[in-house]
Amino acid sequence: MELINQHTKAIMEGCKERARDAGLSFTNESLEYIVTNRDLLELMPKVMIPTLYDYWVHDLEVLREKGKYELYPHNPYETVINTRPPISFYNDNNPDWLNVMIFYHVLGHIDFFQNNLYFRHTWDYDFTGQALSDKRLIARLRSEKGHWVDYVIEFARAIDNLVNYHGELARLYVPDTAVMSERLDYYFDVFLQRLKHVPVSDYLKEVARYNDCLKEFGEQGEKTFFSEAVKKYPELEAHFAKQDGRLSPRRDLLQYLMDESPFLNRDENEWMKQVMEIVRNTSIFFQPQIRTKIMNEGWASYWHEKLFLQDDRIKGHEVDFARVHAGVTSLPRVGLNPYALGMRLFTWLDELGDTGRYSLAYQRLAGAESRKRFDTGAGQGQEFIFRIRENLCDYLFIKEFIDQDFTDRYKLFVVDRRLDQQRQVWQYFVKSRKSEEYRQMLLDTLYHPPVIEVDQERTYGGQLSLVHRFEGKQLVREYLANTMLGIEFLWGGPVSLETSDGIMERPSGSPQGEGAGGGEIRWQRVKYTMHEKVLSRQLVERI
Amino acid sequence: MRNDLEAYLEELRTRGLTPQREARLRAELETAGAEHAPPASEPGTGPFAGFFRSVYAAADLLDLQRGAAVERPVTQIQKSLDELLERDRRREEDGFPRKIRVGKLVKPGRGTAGKVVVVPTTEEEKFIHDPTVRPQEEGGTGGTGDEGEGEVIGEQPVRPEGQGTGTGPGQGEGEAHELESSAYDLGKTLTEKFQLPNLKEKGKKRSLTRYTYDLTDRNRGFGQVLDKKATLRKIIESNISLGNIPDVADIDPSRFLIAPRDKVYRILSREKDFDSQAMVFFLRDYSGSMSGKVTELVATQHVLIYSWLIYQYAGQVESRFILHDTEAKEVPDFYTYYNSQVAGGTEVASAYRLVNEIVAKEGLAKDYNIYVFHGTDGDDWDSGGDKALPELREMIRYASRVGVTIAEHGLGTSGGTEVSRYLENSGLLTERPELIRMDVMQEDADEPRLIEGIKKLIS
């Protein structure tokens, strides 16, 4: 890997100035490298982090057919990595005008990495530096413990999608004053809502009453509040006492194992936790990237288009640019393109902000003509999209902003295909033009690891009990055995997993295979148990 | 066909069926009307390539910078293969299942873009959602255009054009080579690393000369040896056309007019020598019960066997692929063999019969070492093997080895499948162990188990 030459670096610096003037913000320093195919071969398995720890799986072809992006969410062909300073990779001999475009795109990404709040936990350190020290640690452990280090990496990687990234993120944002007493949490979160099912108005009244108590009695406020509450619900204390000491489910399996595993907490196995910590941190580092793919690509594309067209240095290459730009950001006839979709959404939102359409007044308008002409002249488009770039992730971005106006404007629809048995052709057809369905289809394609929690209530007698919160999709069954084998090793005892299995009831003659889906599915709650490397399965009776 | 099967099922029922077996057969019957759709064309090409593309597949280096995806050269992996296999062996010692698979097919495709490359691979298992198990109405992707709801945007043939069955001249040459060259390496690895036995030649001399010279071609007018019968036939033909034979019942040879062109000679010519070659028949059950893991197991094992034979015969192996449900058919390539969908009932005998027919019709028995490998889940509507066993007996008269792999579903107890039962009962396995072998495994068998199975089948 070589740094780009001074001439190209000067172009980059020029891009930075112009991007800053347009409102983007990023650190001053950045590193740009030229990569050859040979470099790429080494970088790809390490998801473009040059200093990532070594692992034997990186040395061979990995099968990625089933659920490719659920298994390997971070794309190995990214150009920019979110480090301090940010590092980006370039093909050799790009022409200058193309570099201008790519640099703007890269700066869009860097701005996004450094300002979107989902990346908050990556702001305070340089990941390549961290990775380098991790790599050295693993190398040292290998020389001490031999190949057992690789088993620990393997087993930890097998569950590195169960890390409760959102919980990690939430910790960074909870202000100290928001920490309430357990009793108060219980009263408002569980007791009133789940046990008593009080109407919203009553609930709000209680909140108001609590605030009043605080105002009036200060430190003694909570006590006073509860003396009233107990009068109303004499059973409250008994319920709370029962609840107290009860263990809530834990989402972060990796962390749970590090904290609680009797096996890992033996003195001679303490080192394994260091390895697991590395795997866990790496996973958490990459989480926001996958959850902001459409926004991030859209944001970068929006800016490379806008800034390139304003750039005075590229005169004469407008047509070249148009070709490359269209190739990247044109809406595919069939398929999803994050660049195209994200860029159009940002352009659209820019317009909404400028015309003041993101408002109740606009939403209330019914007449098509008056909607078309609606313009308050608010001129807040830029401010609006910068706020979105700071605060949202793909899920919220799509859920909030894809509406009928948007899908109509860009003629978007949901495509599906069916088999014409007679003529032996796949027919691709417009399944729906409704924005709700388009939105739902998009949301369904987003990265979403299963929610698997440690049921602390049922974890006893040396057996770890996991519960999969069923969301209409079963787990890949072939993967259960090896994954649970790893957990059994890390836990040092039997492990059970409660999940749901589907039984397909295919109508006769239905096409099979990917894309065709099945017929009716009957769901069954089952429990898999891994004990001494043997997996068993039993039905769970529904109560 | 379906009605026939129903009647057949009734008949079987009167003869006595266990409830589980009946349920299984009924389930197969349900799919009997379905087509064995040919393998879907490779997504990733054509105008609808985007249908399967995830948003996460886009990346700046590929899309923005127009870089090409970098393929890791197979050779680079092979270099460290020894080390990897050593690691895998140690895994077993440490009490964990092996993880490196050498026989996995990557990117099976059709046509020029499709290659079958055999490389060592692995998988990193995690808890993830299974995208294939979902209700029918879900699914789809995005699109853009002016069409209204329900309108068809376009069509794509299930079987890409220019991909008719049968091999035209030159077609798929490079492709076949691709499989063969990596299969050869794989065969070598298998033989060396997994201590697969070397092949013992029975009687026939192995020669690497591919050509032999023989007086086989016919030539009119001149040559080395006069072919009297052919010459006489030619003379009569000419004389009939000259009107020189008034009464066919009474021919007088002395009146024949003989033209020099009528003389047919045999001349020396170059012939391909098939003597030292092996012909492998791969038979696969693709009935309704074969869905999922069992098919993959059978196909993977067949790739491994193929590779091993290629190595043993120094590349001189021809392979034929046969699929069967209640009827058998031959398919042109491994891709179709591997990917054709399952449906319908099962009748093992049909496949054996087809092999016997092909061998008889093409006279293969005298020129080839014939190997037959059959993969099934062990279910057969033909209880007791009344039809299959005679065909099998016929087959072992000429075959060098018949290997039957049964990948059992986790349902029954071991050895409980129909095919294994009638094979055991027939006594063939103990009578002629040098000619016929059977290997029964569970459907969750892993690669070492497969290789173990191959040893059993071919040793």
Structure explained in plain terms:
The complex is a heterodimer of chains A (543) and B (459). With 543 residues, chain A is of the alpha+beta class. Chain A has 23 helices and twelve strands. Chain A has four domains: 2-130 and 286-314, no CATH class; 176-243, no CATH class; 318-425, no CATH class; 451-539, no CATH class. Chain A has helices at 6-21, 37-43, 68-71, 96-115, 127-145, 148-158, 165-173, 182-195, 200-217, 221-232, 236-243, 253-260, 270-291, 293-310, 318-329, 338-355, 360-364, 368-373, 381-391, 394-401, 404-409, 435-445, 480-491, and strands at residues 2-3, 31-34, 61-62, 80-81, 87-90, 412-420, 425-432, 451-454, 464-469, 495-505, 520-531, 534-539. In chain A, the strands form three sheets. A five-stranded mixed β-sheet of chain A has the order 8-9-10-11-12, with helices on one face. In chain A, helix 1 packs across helix 4, helix 5 packs antiparallel against helix 13 (270-291) and helix 6 (148-158) crosses helix 23 (480-491). Residues 508-518 of chain A have low confidence and may be disordered. Chain B has helices at residues 2-15, 19-30, 60-64, 74-79, 81-93, 173-193, 228-242, 293-312, 334-339, 348-362, 388-398, 418-426, 428-431, 447-458, and strands spanning 105-106, 117-118, 121-122, 141-144, 152-157, 211-220, 225-226, 264-272, 277-285, 317-324, 328-331, 368-376, 401-408, 436-442. In chain B, strand 12, helix 11 (388-398) and strand 13 (401-408) form a beta-alpha-beta unit. By secondary structure, chain B is an alpha/beta fold. Chain B is extended and about 90 Å long. Chain B starts with a helix and ends with a helix. The chains are: A alpha+beta (543), B alpha/beta (459). At the A-B interface, helix 2, strand 3, helix 3, helix 4 and helix 6 of A face helix 3, helix 5, strand 3, strand 4 and strand 5 of B. Strand 3 (61-62) of chain A pairs parallel with strand 3 of chain B, so a sheet runs across the interface.
